[in-house]
Amino acid sequence: MGMLRFPNMASEGPKVSLTAGLLLSLAALFLAPTANAADYEDCENLFLTGQYQAAYEMATKAIEDYAYQEEWRHLLVKTMMVQGRYREAQDTIVNTISRYPTSVRARQLGYDVFLANGNTARSESLLKEIDYLVGNRSWAYREAANLVSIARTALLLGADPKNVLDSFLSPAKEQNDEVREAWMVAGKLALGKNDFQTAAEEFKEGARRFPEDPDFHWGVAMSFAESDMQIAMESLNKALTINTNHVPSLLMLVDYGIDAEDYEQAAEGIGQILAINPHHPLAWSYQALMENLKDSPKGEARCLEEATRFWPGNPEVPHLIGKKLSQKYRFKEGSEYQKKALALDPGHSGAKIQLAQDLLRLGDDTGWKLAKEVHEADAYDVIAYNLVTLADVMGKFETLENEHFLVRMSPREAAIYGDQVLSLLTRAHKTLTEKYGIQLEEKTIIEIFPDQKDFAIRTFSLPGGAGFLGVCFGRVITANSPASQVDDPSNWEAVLWHEFAHVITLTLTRNKMPRWLSEGISVHEELAANPIWGQTMTPFYRELILGGELTPVSELSSAFLNPKSGEHLQFAYYESALVVEFLIKEYGIESLRAILRELGEGKEINTTIARHTTSMESLEKAFDAFARKRAKSLAPDLDWERPEEPPAGLPQLWTTQMHPKNYYILHQKAAELMGQEKWEEAKEPLKTLIEHYPNNAESDSPLKLLAVVHRKLEEREEEKKILKKLAAISADDVDVFERLMEMAEEEEDWKTLAVNGERYLAANPLNPRIYRLLAPAQEKINSIEEAARSWKAMLQMDPADPAQAHYKFAALIAQRRPEEARRHLLMALEHAPRFRDAHRILQSIDNESEASPDPEEATREKTASPSLPTPSRNAP
């Protein structure tokens, strides 16, 4: 890369003499008539509002009428470029540079023009010319518009972005706040570095200053596209309201349509763009992508030819296609396109960082090296910085491995529940590979992160992603550990089972399946593995279904893109699972497997489903009836009509007397009575709700409220009965599990304590108090392996009495794993040298070792467990 020679803006006087061309230009300034400034503003307004041909004609006429101002020629070139008149634009910019030989602005515009025509050598030479001119005549380029052109040149030559901002863009803004390009270049700089927060700030300020410029509203939309789709779409609508032909905004709509699998919308958008510019490389790139998704190699090749007609070496074409394929989870194909982009431009940081992410999602650790290369070359790239930082964190992870899995976890968590992770995954592997008739050739990689931010960076490359518990890329799974969910833990066993189901379906389809079907199968398999995992009908889901808010099956992936709320997103998962249940119920599991196999061959989803079931129209109608029937089956004896809200200041018109079985009135009445501490009276509405809706496990479940009522009234047996019902229908209600454990300990009901302890650990295995309750109970019911596991886990949690924890663990494994027991006994004695029982078991191990010269005999497993004496720390 070239190095821009930053000018000394304080230097005085020119360092080169005026050329003959410049003298002629100066003469023209005084001799030629000039167009009215208002005329230029009118022409610019035509351009901003998408009237490109009219702007082209007006600018052409102004120049023919001897309008001298350089801006007219710049605007003319822009009208040509936006309409795909690349050759004409090139001729015009050559004439413009000849007419204004010292213009850095014309050369900066020319850089884009020559690139569009595939003349990369001339583009690069223009940057060098700007470097030379500024280095020798810095006094001539202090106007804000020139500073912006210099800034963009400096960035293209590899200058430090912060220096560019400080030296050129900030002074340009201060000097003339009417130069909109200063905010535009700053915003695009941040956007290109994945610094969406800074990009949003720059574009928002630009939109405030220049509200009629659609580029700034587009910039705001792009800045929020990854974090807040509502803001993004509102800004995009503003841009398109100003200019219905705004190509960047139309491209964004095409992108959105492809993400939503609304290919008709995407095709319509591409058609609109090509009507404006029949040669637009990115429009043809999106069309090539859609041909790829349709498994049409000939169509894809034809579109690629059109995309590169004027610039065969354009790296943006393969980069865009590869990026979108990767967003469809087709990382292998996406990575191949990024390699093509890098072959065209080895310095394309966007392609390199995308390739790094693709490789990491394929389980190829060379992605870390690529991320480091990008970071070393460009310290401002946010994604590269995040990945390099994360690599240091993951370098400290511990790896657990067996025949089918490679699990990476923090060392502490690996010691606490790593074995259980492998055990659960092994069971999932056996169950799901047999069910779907597949053999996985490679090990599945699972990475579990105790810090949500690290999970988000590994998964999305940026912080965020709140609400995601796990993500599957194919053979790589990333997951939040319970440590990142302290306030609201989810059952980690269900999460891993769900994600491994994705491994099965993505492998079967070669990652060529819509999101809704993949998610639907995973939720369905959760429920098949454990009826309290996954999702079931809720009052909210009932209301949505009966209110006509089901998304048509043919459009179901769109429900995941822009949900109204978190609850609506969860409903998208639920509806998808309901569709899978319907397909299996009506057409059998083999039909579903056949659909997955054909998707792997590149077949279109809706056509494939119809081929193995019925027409999509008939299927959607039948599914709607199926879903409505399921919704109506939820507590059918209850009245589900929502009460009318009374006018402000007036009492509630609906009462339990008028509506004795209304779900919402009964719930509200119970809450009011509990708020007034009328515990006994609160029982009646709660019992009515439970009688008709006994399996409600939501956060405000009547079962939970009734348990509180019984506890307040000190009705222990009634409370326990209700809590047991809750525990049987909830996978992650740790408060219920812990309360049952406490009650069981008081009653010495060790079996109940152990059962609820295991339930608790399936949601949160990191609470030391649970192990302190659980381990003795497991010993009492002779669950030796489980008790040993609990004591071993406690050793990772800074136990108050480490000597006892080491001793207990050692005593439980002494006969099966004597050498490991010896180590822990010695550690117990380090903490308590006079620990009598530790000495006794250690002596027993030593004696047995001396009596058994055969090491296999000495370490053989015995079913009998040692009798654990009450530890005594005193020497005899």
Please give a quick description of this structure:
This protein is mainly alpha-helical. It contains 43 helices and five strands.
Structure notes:
- With 876 residues, this protein is mainly alpha-helical.
- Among the domains are: 400-456 and 470-482 and 509-632, no CATH class; 635-645 and 652-730.
- Helices cover 65% and strands 3% of the residues.
- α2 (37-48) packs antiparallel against α3 (52-64) and α9 packs antiparallel against α10.
- The longest helix has 26 residues, at 411-436.
- The model is unreliable at 1-34 and 857-876 (pLDDT under 50).
List keywords for this structure.
876 residues; mainly alpha; disordered C terminus
**Overall pLDDT score:** 90
Largest sheet: 5 strands, mixed
Task: Please work out how many helical segments DSSP would assign.
Answer: 43
Q: Which class of secondary structure composition applies to the elements?
A: mainly alpha
Oligomer: single chain
Our measurement of the CA-to-CA distance between the termini, rounded to an integer number of angstroms, reads 80 Å
Contiguous low-pLDDT stretches (5 residues minimum) are: 1-34, 857-876
Helical content band = 55-70%
Q: What percentage of the residues does DSSP assign to strands (E)?
A: under 5%
In what order do the strands lie side by side in the largest sheet?
Answer: 1-2-3-5-4
* Radius of gyration over all CA atoms, rounded: 34 Å
Q: What is the β-strand count?
A: 5
Structural shape: globular
